[in-house]
Amino acid sequence: MFFSWSFANISFFQPHAFLMIGIPGLEAIHGWISILFSSMYTVALTGNCLILLAVRRTPSLHQPMYYFLSMLALTDVGLTLATMPTTLAVLWFDHRLIGFDTCLVQMFFLHFFSVVESSVLLAMSFDRFVAISNPLRYASILTNYVIIRIGLATVARATVSLFPLPFLLKRLNFCPGKILLSHSFCFHADVMKQACADITVNITYGLYVVLSTVGFDSLLIVLSYTLILHTVMSLASPRERIRALNTCVSHILAVLVFFIPVIGVSMIHRFGRHLTPIVHTLVAYVYLVVPPVLNPVIYSVKSKPIREAMLRVLREKRKG
C-alpha cells in the first residue's frame, strides 16, 4: 500500500519552470527586434493612458461612449502589462525561464484581459445601437449606474470563465523534458500541450470559453450592426445616414483589429500544426500586442473630441 502511494506520488511531475522563446529563427537579431517591441509597448501604454486622462479631465467627454472607450483603454493597458515583462526579458536579456505558478498567473491575466476586451467591444456596439436607434432616450438608457453594472459584469464574466483554467492545468502530469513554450509568454493552448496526460478536458473547456465569450460576443456585435444598418437605411437624408455611420467607424476598426487576430490564433492552434513555429509566434504577437497599440491611434485619428482632449493633456503636461 505504502509502495503504490509512493510510486504514484513520484510519477506525478510538474516542472519548476518553463523555457520561453522569442521569435524562432531570429534569435541573432533579438536586440534589434526588442527596439520595435519596446516602441510598440511605449505607444500602447502612452496612448491608452492619455485616453484615460483625457476622458477624466474633460467634462464634455463624460458620456457613455467615452466611458466605454475608457474601459477599452484600461483593458489594453492590462493586456500590455500582462505580456510586456516576459517578452522584453527574453528579447533584451535572453532571460527565458518562467516559474510554473508564475506562468499560470500570467496565463490567467492574459486571457482575462482578452475576454474583458471582447466584452467591452460588445458593450460599445450596444452603445452605438442605442445612440443611433433611440437617440432621445440614449442618456436615460445608458445611465452611469447601468454603465458601472456593465463594467462589473464584464469583469465577473471573465473571472468566472477563466478561473478554472489554472487548476485544470495544475492537475496534469507533465513530462520532465517538455518545458519549451512557443512564445515569450504563457498561452493556455501552449502550456497544456507540454503535458504528458490526457488533455481532453482542457481542450474542451478551452473551446467552451472561446465560444461562450469571444465567439458569442462576435455574433452579438454582428447582430448589433445589422440592426444599426437597418435603422440607418430608414433615415430619409443621405447626409444623416453618413453622419450616423461615421460615429461607428472607430468602433468597427477596433472590432476588426481585435477579432481578426483572435480568429487567426484559434485557427492556427487547431489546424495549423504543419505551419512553421515563426507563424504561430507572429500571429500570437499580432493578437496580443497590436490591438493595444492601434486602438489609441484609431480613436485619436477618427474622433475629434478625443484627439483634442489628448492634445490638451499633453500641453498641460509640458506646461507643468
Question: Which sheet architecture does the biggest sheet show?
Answer: 2 strands, antiparallel
**Termini gap:** 73 Å
Helix content range: over 70%
Quantity of strands, as a count: 2
Average pLDDT, to the nearest integer?
A: 91
Q: Give the strand order of the largest sheet, numbering strands 1, 2, ... along the chain.
A: 1-2
Query: Which structural class fits the helix and strand makeup?
Result: mainly alpha
Strand content: under 5%
Global geometry = globular
Note poorly predicted spans: 1-9
With helices defined by DSSP (H or I, 4 residues minimum), what is the helix count? Answer: 13
Q: Rg from C-alpha positions?
A: 22 Å
| Helix-strand topology string | HEHHEHHHHHHHHHH
Please provide a written account of the structure.
- There is one protein chain.
- By secondary structure, the chain is mainly α.
- The chain is built from 13 helices and two strands.
- The protein has helices at residues 2-11, 30-57, 64-93, 100-133, 138-141, 144-162, 164-170, 188-192, 200-233, 238-246, 249-271, 277-302, 304-319, and strands at residues 17-19, 97-99.
- The chain has a two-stranded antiparallel ribbon with strand order 1-2.
Annotation keywords:
320 residues, mainly alpha, OR51/52/56-like, olfactory receptor activity, membrane, transmembrane helix
Short characterization:
With 320 residues, the protein is an all-alpha fold.
